[in-house]
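[job 0412] stage=fold_complex status=start
inputs:
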Amino acid sequence: MSITSPPANDRGTALSFENLSVSFETEFSDVHAVKGLSLEVYPGEVVALVGESGSGKSVTSTAAIGLLPSNAYITGKALVGGVNVVGMAENRMRKMRATDIAMVFQEPMTALNPVLTIERQLTESLELHGLAYGKDATRRAIELLDMVGIPDPAKRIRQYPHQFSGGQRQRIVIAMAISCDPKVIIADEPTTALDVTVQAEILDLLRELKDKLNTGILLITHNMGVVADLADRVAVMFHGSLVETGTVDQVLNNPVHPYTQKLLASVPRLKAVDVTGGWTPEPVAPVDPNRTLVLEARNLVLEYDMRGTKFRAVDDLSFELARGQILGIVGESGSGKSTVAKAVLGLLPVASGVLAVHGTNLATLRPKAARAVRAKIGVIFQDPAASLNPRFPIGDCITEPMVVHKVGSRAERIRRAGELLEAVHLPRSVLNRYPHELSGGQRQRVCIARALTLDPELLIADEPTSALDVSVQAAVLEMIQELQARYEFACLFVSHDLAVVDLLAHHVVVMKDGKSVEQGRVSDVLHAPQHDYTRRLLAAAPVPEPREQAVRREARRLLLELETPKG
Amino acid sequence: MLRFILRRLGASIGILFAASLLLYVLVINSGDPLAELRESNAENRENLMQRRIEFMNLDMPWYQRYWTWLVGVGKCFALQCDLGTSRQGVEVSALLGLAASSTLRLVLLATVLAAILGIAIGVLTAVRQYSGLDYGVTFLTFMFFSLPVFWAAVLLKEYLAIGYNDWMEDPAFSVPQIAAIAVLVGFLMQVFLGGTPRRRIATFAVAAAFVAIVIPYLTWLNFFRFPQLGFGGVLVLGLGVALSGTAMSVGLRNTKVLYPALATVALGAIVYFASFGLLENPNWFVLAIGAVLAVVIPALLGKYLGGHLAVPAMGVGIATGIVMAGLTTLDHIFRAWPGFLALKPRPIATIGSQTPNFVGTFWEDFLDKGTQLLLPTILLAIISLASYSRYTRSSMLEVGQQDYIRTARSKGLSERTVIFRHAFRNAMIPIATIAAFDFAGLIGGAVITESVFGWKGMGELFRTGLMQVDPAPVMAFFLVTGTAAVLFNMLADIFYAILDPRIRV
Amino acid sequence: MTIEKEPTEVPAVLLAEAEDAALARKDSVSLSQGQLVRRRFVAHRAAMISTVALAFIAVMAFSSIGYAGIPGWWDKDYTMAGSVIDGGRPTFSLLPTWLGGTGLAWGEHPFGQDSTGKDYFALVMRGTQQSIIIAVIVGIVATVIGAVVGAVAGYYRGWVDAVLMRMTDLFIVIPLLVLAAVLGQIASRTGNTTVVLALVLGLVTWTGLARLVRGEVLSLREREYVAAAQSMGAKTSRVILKHLLPNTIGVIVVNATFAIAGAILLETSLSYLGFGVKAPDSSLGLLISQYQNAFTNRPWLFWWPGMIILAIALSVNFLGDGLRDAFDPRQTRKARRRSKKEEVSE
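[job 0412] stage=fold_complex status=done
writing structure:
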């Protein structure tokens, strides 16, 4: 379509960067986000750009579609179908979007305009780029929805985004991206916000589309499993530069650069899973009569009150957690796994059943006695940005439990805070700093310190690492393990990440729709699942090894095929 | 959606009821209604007091008085309102008619003007954030927020009304005046249209030159006393809208849009002559029908001639139709202006909602009410406009950072489409809720403005009623303004539900 | 997105390690949120000018004619009538001598005299005092009630919330001015009109702030540090006072200033309508009401009080704007771009 594009040759790139540099001028100083990056994406190929936060991977892709904010200073070239888009006039760049380069974003819940119908949002780029008008455009849009697997597209096209689930919305965003047949699609963390089973479906869809349409895909991700599943080639970014490029097999199995090696080493891996069911469990060790039960749930029911109508989030759940043990609770969003943690923390009343800490039933406890029980429970939450009060210096954050329970003098509290900071490998000088000066991983370590202030017997960890980068996650997990070995507290570990639970927990509860579908020792449940749902969940979780992932993908396909006829 | 609106309406009516009780109790406890009679030395003092007690039902306990009032209001549903008697014994219902119509006219006009202009300015300043225009408008809105209404009213009266009227005696411009106006217009035009420095200079030059040529010409025509547009003016301007609308939406080559727009111009030209007699002294009914036709006919033309471009064709057609109809009407208003000046030599008045004993044609009457309405409306609108523009600006900026705006940009949509199709509707959602509060603020503002401009409106009813501890007029004021507020609130709710599908489906 | 400050070379360390190294390198000066806010506020030119102007007006008003029996440096009283000199023309002048003026001159009656010969400077200063007293009291009353009710409604939701929302809805059907006028009329029957009027205005202007604080608390209470405090057994009062309210301070302070500006205008409007401060006491609104018809003959009687209302309200509004920018760094202006970068990015 462009005047200056070279004659199409067989291996012409869909997208390529030549010595691309991007820097931003901010309030305080210039920040070099990308430093001289070169990379090619060919038609029909998936190139994964991986890296941790701040590596510049999203900035690189945004530069290609010309949507960087105006304080960005770009040099080098970004060629879309052979045309350099760096410094291109806005109105020419606009014509290239959707037809030459399209984008799939991370957050499907917010990527669609809530007040326009899907039809409007799909047809507008068709009409804008002159591909189809009016009824033709609608017909084409219905075809696209059908192609990305939206059921009953002719009817559903008239609906609004809020009437679709997260996975469906991501499918619609993908339909939008392919609507004008672009040469290259940039998929910026397309599955990060999705559940693992939905993630597997979206990855299948992307793979199918790229083969069908011969489009190049630049996949931005931090998830090595996704890389192994979808990518042909991998480029690893660190601090704005490429440190390693190669085929997916080379990079994931024989990384050369030390950064890549360390990065891959810190990815938690699921051990081999047997989904055939022909596995003889290890003999169950007799229950240790001397063990101390720290947390116990019996027929626990938890309900949310939504304007009078009760929504049952947890139904008939029973489990036991003894001193020195880690119990993992896994499940997808809406399974009620975090609700259990909330109830233990007293943030949600128990509707019926028993939830006992050291034999005292929380459900029937008076507020004052409950407060005394709380002193024995520590907590770590998911979002490091939100779990420390921004107006408290770190020292105050850590000693707050002591203040609340009136433990120790001021000097003792400060001493204790110092000890705890040491335990989580942070310098003592951090005491007087404010949360906004710390990185996410450091804040999460402060949260761990806070949770341990009163020597808890029970630690509740609600997705403590899911907002963290891979290497930071590894450090935090290691720390939890180390501290647990030292202080021997019981830990309730809630997570959606099966690999993390596999790494850390002794026992596991798999939850779905508020019910426990399977529970037991990690070695039994996660390696020889008995329940279909657990199998599906395990099969959907990608592993960071391309050949193994290909095998698992096939196994998952077979598993799903086996299940479908059953209904 | 219906359930949502009914529920909101039900809640509003409950609040209306509670508020009426609160206000009633507060008003009857705000003083002693018999105070000045108690101190009077008149011979018939006892007699006067007795009469007042009777008119105001002072012999009843407060709840019984309130109940009586409430029952009287209830009769409104049978179209027999009984809003009680003022302390002079005048039926309040009788006072209400004229007062309510003039006040509501003022408040509604100000609301509509403020909302349209405020939202437009808000969008513009959000799009051009941190530009000179943005800073200028920001400063002005702060100025308007801080301006005491009653003080500004006196300034307007003094400079705008009296100054204009004096000038109207012999409308003329001196050369420095023309130069100053030309520079000012040129400056404002480049501020609003924006663009690169070179484009701004061009805009300035063209606008200033245009003004410098047009003003002497208009003075020579004596346009200010005998304004005229004529068929030629209507046709040229209508054609201009049709062509520029087509050029801006799809381009002039595109006959699917151009032809319906031109057909609309042709029809408008025919209607200009066909309706000439009718519009010389029309009534509101005729005008309303004309307005509806001006929208419906071009819409139909666009729909059937536009093919796959039906939507832009309808848009351009409707814009052309409305402009043609508006110009035709304006032409008749211009024709009535000399006659109006003869009846009312100092056109912009500073007192009252209409000139007493004014008799004229429809248009003369319209101009009279219009000129009386001018100053209070400007005043009320300016203050409300400041808050609309401010809220719209921040709402637009907020929406501009949403993910779906980035999605829209990544499809290659032009900035205009991104702003109007994707950002604007979302930005209007919070404005719909703010509008209800703003309307109440305008009614409060109307009490002050009416007092400054000496209107015998609802504000006057409230003010004297409260001064004299007389609940009936105060409650009548409340009933009208409160009901208006509830209705307006309901409109805002409907608007809200239309904007936001999450409420509807 | 957050971008780490770059190290000079790409070392083969992981992000976690790089972050710790960066933390160790950091200089010892650490700024609390309050300090950051102060710094940004001082950098806001319009807000700083407004603060100075406001302070100047307040010092003038209270030091000139004194307050509550304490005499000031101005020798005339706002109730003292006298003979009208030179048609009551103001003697205040700023025009320098070399332009044909008299230089900075204060004179006998700087703001002129009213029709009964009262010194208009004293009258206007008295009115300014009233406005400032009202501003302060309304600021305190409305902020305290609004913040507490808003926080409680947002935290507990349920019926407290429902009542608050219905109360704010009340102002949809009864305009603020109308309710304030009725209450002002009741207040005027008591002795110390200004203070009572101010309390009354405070009682009707808190709902806006309460709504905003409520909204803020509704979102803050879902933050994990609040959940952490709750789950460690902190009492509700501690959660609200230590964790919720301090984090809404931006909303509170900013909207308190806007409420103050609104209250000043409301008082002057009420006094203008005759439902606020009444003669023989003085208020800026009352002065305008008394002398609006004197505009053509003695315009100074009209200009002075109006200009002072405008100056106070404008300063307070700009102060609020400066505070908003200081508390909410998202809204501060972008760093100025260098011209060469502009060329590239356009």
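[job 0412] summary: Chain C has 13 helices and no strands.
[job 0412] exit 0
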